Amino acid sequence: PSLCRVAMCVGKCSRIVGPCLLVLGTLSVAANILLLFPGGASKYLAEGHISKHAKAMPGIWGGGIAVSTAVSTASFLACLWSREEGMEQVAPLHPPSTFSFPQLALLGAAACFVLSGVGLTNGPLCFYNASEHGHGHGTLWGYPFLDAGSQEPDARTENYLHDRHTWSICLEPAGVVAWNVILFSLLLLVSATEMVLASLQILNGCLGCLCGFCEGK
C-alpha cells in the first residue's frame, strides 16, 4: 500500500534523526554551560551574578539531557525489539519507544525553546549604571534592558536587540550582552531543530504503526 511506502521512506530518513538529536543535545548542553561563565570567567557564577534564565539551565535538562536520554533509550529498545523480531518471537507491531520517547524529546526541546526565548528577551544580568536609566543612582547588578521595558513595552526590544549601542551600558561582565545574545540565540535554533526532528520521529512511529496494520491485513 502507498501508506507503507511512505512509512518506509520516513523510516529511512529517521535513521539519521537519532544521531542528529544526540549532536544537538550535546551542543545545547555546551551552550548552556558557557552561559554560566560569561566571557569565560568563573567568578560571576561563584558570586551568583548569573542570569536567572541561564541558571535555570534549560539547555542542559531540556534540550540536552531530556533529548539525549530519549534518543538513547528509544534506540536501545528499538534494537531489542529488532532482535526479538529477528528471532521470530511475538513482538508488537511497532516498538513502543517510538511513541513515548520522541514525545519526551519534543517536550524537553519545547521547554528549552520557551525559556531561552524569555532569557533572550529579558537580557543579561550585569553591573550597570542605574542613573542612566532613571532607576536610581550609582551602579548596581540588575537587568537593565528588562527595567528599560517596564514603562514602554516595546522599548526593551528596540533598545536592546535592535540597537547595539545600548549594549555598552553593561560594565561587567565584559561583553556579557553579546555573550547572552549569541548563546541564547543558539539555544533557540538548536531547540527548534530538535522539535522538528522529534516531530518527524513521532510521525514515523504513527506511520509505522498504521503500516503494521496494513501488513496485518
Automatic annotation (TrEMBL):
GO cellular-component term (any): membrane
Keyword set, alphabetical order: Membrane, Transmembrane, Transmembrane helix
InterPro entries: L6_membrane
A Pfam family per the record: L6_membrane
Location relative to the cell: Membrane
Membrane topology, as annotated: Multi-pass membrane protein
Top-level taxonomic group: Eukaryota
Major subcellular site: membrane
Residue ranges crossing the lipid bilayer per the database entry: 21-40, 60-81, 101-120, 177-197
Family: Belongs to the L6 tetraspanin family.
Protein name: Transmembrane 4 L6 family member 1
